[in-house]
Write a structure and sequence with these properties.
Helix content: 25-40%
Radius of gyration: 20 Å
Number of strands: 10
Number of helices: 8
Largest sheet: 5 strands, mixed
Strand order of the largest sheet: 3-2-1-5-4
Order of helices and strands: HEEHHEHEEHEEEHHHEE
Strand content: 25-35%
Structural class: alpha+beta
Oligomer: single chain
Number of domains: 2
Distance between the termini: 23 Å
Amino acid sequence: MVVEITIENTLRLIEKYFLKQLDFNLEGRSCDFILLTPSESSFETPQYAWQLSDRRFDHFSQLVIIRELLEVFRNNLSKDEYHSIARINIINSESPLVRNIKLMFPVNKEFTEINDIVIAGERINYSILINSKRLQALKTGRAVTITRNDGIVLNAGIVSMDQNYSIKYWTGKGLRKLFNTNATQEEKITAAALKAMDDGYLVEHGFLAYINYDEILSIS
């Protein structure tokens, strides 16, 4: 359980770093390649190597990305969680390892185990290929189901994300009242009038709401 929480907390920070690289534009896609590999360690806490790749990363210095990620981890993880990171590698998206793994293991599951195989000349004894379902589901204009960390489930129409990772979304009420495709003419007029209202009014009356990315357990 502790190991799962450690991996989840580290993964969430990687997701947030990726969102920042997207300038908080919600594109509905995960980082192209996240590979987690257990590492031999003399620490009591298990250690893992993280290998990341994305076409956006190709345009930046790998060393800069690693330094930025380490700073994020250092500032947000517990001491044990931080020490669970054996190393971070940033790999070019066109490298044989990335291309072959993506070809051999199409990303359709959140976690895919890779066992005892040689890929692009590199032996992988055991690794986990990770696909962030949260990032994949987050797309402006998409209707989703959000499960909060406390188990509460929300119907939401994604609008945008700000630099504090606060997601603006239409509530279930907002979706029903403002985006009903079977609305009568009178209901369409009411919906148009509501859409012209400012965010404060829409939030106060339950049509619009905000949730921070850290409050979200899953999105589907």
